Amino acid sequence: MSSSEIKSPEVLPETPATHDGVSNSTHGKKLGIYFLESDNRRMAFGRGYAVGATPVNIRGKPIPDLAKTGGWIAALFIFGNEMAERMAYFGLSVNMVAFMFYIMHRPFASSSNAVNNFLGISQVSSVLGGFLADAYLGRYWTIAIFATIYLAGLTGITLCASMNIFMPSQDRCDQLSLLLGIRPCVSSFGADQFDERSENYKSHLDRFFNFFYLSVTTGAIVAFTLVVYIQMKHGWGSAFGSLAIAMGMSNMLFFVGTPLYRHRLPGGSPLTRVAQVLVAAFHKRKAPFSSSELIGLYEVPGKRSAIKGSGKIEHTDDFRCLDKAALQLKEDGVDPSPWRLCTVTQVEEVKILIKLVPVPAFTIMLNLILTEYLTLSVQQAYTLNTHLGHLKLPVTCMPVFPGLSIFLILSLYYSVFVPISRRITSHPRGASQLQRVGIGLAFSIFSVAWAAIFERYRRKYAVEHGYEVSFLTPMPNLSAYWLLIQYCLIGIAEVFCVVGLLEFLYEEAPDAMKSIGSAYAALAGGIGCFAASILNSIVQSVTGNPGKRQQSWLSQNINTGRFEYFYCLLTVLSVINFCAFLYSARRYKYRAEHKFGIQEVVTSKQNTPTSRI
């Protein structure tokens, strides 16, 4: 069904509507056209820097001089905040593995699942933070509130570890992870600091997300080195205390930058708006698109949309069943209920949320691999020689190497990758967002494939040299630094996939749902963690048989298990996931491509000019 099939009757009530100071008759015209004609805002991404999305100060008032706020100076405070917060997050994660295994004497598989669940819950709970930010609190206050609670939780853990009153249990870890709901808000809030009307906006946004992830990586590197060192030299209380100090510094940096920040007004509950579209579309599911009772597609007149903090969104032909929520019939009356009639912008918001789902869903596999590496590669490292010259690195420091590779790649990204890829793709930024996600997924396949190859060699070496039973005894002639290959490859995958995904979600999400859009990435990460636990349990159940003394692939004794088979399974799943991503990505249309979609249809059908968009 084409756009031309959504028709208004030729004769409508003679009710004048004023748009930009010009009175126009509704005779013989569509409300969809009025929707476009009434909005002459400047378009930045092919959607627009609308009046409803104009930055405000912390009091919700318009900023008289935007030049004195936002920009890279404000972003620096956010980078510092994120770096310190990620140090606390990753420091807590890596210490939990060692704490449960060595102190609480939990089996390695149980410890791995506990950490996976912690990581999963902490990332999934970010959706709550995104919802509160977009609906009620705004991104600034959501970060401020949850970061303060976060600090209180870390302080409590420090006191408990220092006073030996009790040890952290799985339940307490899960409860703590529910407090970490700030992740999608930080990246979105940082991106809010840049002016959409600027000619260099896309370039600034691209660099912002790269530098943002660089700050995340820096915090992780410090966590995997300095925090591990503090734990080994001074104990668990000092290690957890350093994390609380890092989080305190994170909060301080964030609050110091308050006068410089630009804010976006929350647009009300996005879940309510989604529900209204679904209910209205269901109620009018039998209403035809061409009817004498049809007035047209409903949109409010004027420059602003009906959603606070959002500009208007042009109509698209996707998910036509949802368009029925915006069909204005004569029976709707003058003041219809929002549960019976929704605006075009509201309907398009729901369409966009649906269209965004597949892309982060395809990154779940990457997050699953990252989660497995966090635990399984550490288990591998216990059997290998971790000496670097005369320096012996702790096994828990091994995850620092993906961080170092990410740091190096991000540092060289604009000087090496962009110029080379620009010659190949002719893309001004080297590669589009979806292309970068695809490159990341491809490198994740190479990483896990190499992990399978090396694990096969490592196990064979262990068996041949009498280490089959002594699985916690390092083999002096086999270096742990062979793991660096898979670490570096997965680091490259992270750079391209995660950074590209964050930028993609922020640009494509509706104005009033930026945090919800960014939360998709955190949700994919959380699901990846849970999927890792589920996959581990399935593999252990299917491949192991205690009654017949048959070890599972993921046996606690890595030398009698078959980790290489497990890595091969991950490789196959990654290839399937990558092929599905390619199919979906080729069909996806960026929102910028719809910039003049309706206008062109209207012009060709009626040969009447419309106002400048």
TrEMBL record:
InterPro entries (alphabetical): MFS_trans_sf (IPR036259), POT_fam (IPR000109), PTR2_symporter_CS (IPR018456)
Domain of life: Eukaryota
Keyword set, alphabetical order: Membrane, Transmembrane, Transmembrane helix
Membrane-protein topology: Multi-pass membrane protein
One MF annotation (Gene Ontology) recorded for this entry: transmembrane transporter activity
Transmembrane as UniProt keyword: yes
Keyword Amino-acid biosynthesis: no
Region (Disordered): 1-24
Principal location class: membrane
GO biological process, any: oligopeptide transport
Pfam families attached to this UniProt entry: PTR2
Gene Ontology cellular component terms for the protein in this record: membrane
PROSITE patterns per record: PTR2_1
Localization per record: Membrane
Regions that span the bilayer: 87-105, 143-166, 211-230, 236-256, 352-373, 393-416, 437-454, 480-506, 518-543, 563-585
Family to which this protein belongs: Belongs to the major facilitator superfamily. Proton-dependent oligopeptide transporter (POT/PTR) (TC 2.A.17) family.
Protein name, UniProt field: PROTEIN NRT1/ PTR FAMILY 6.1
Organism whose genome encodes this protein: Salix viminalis
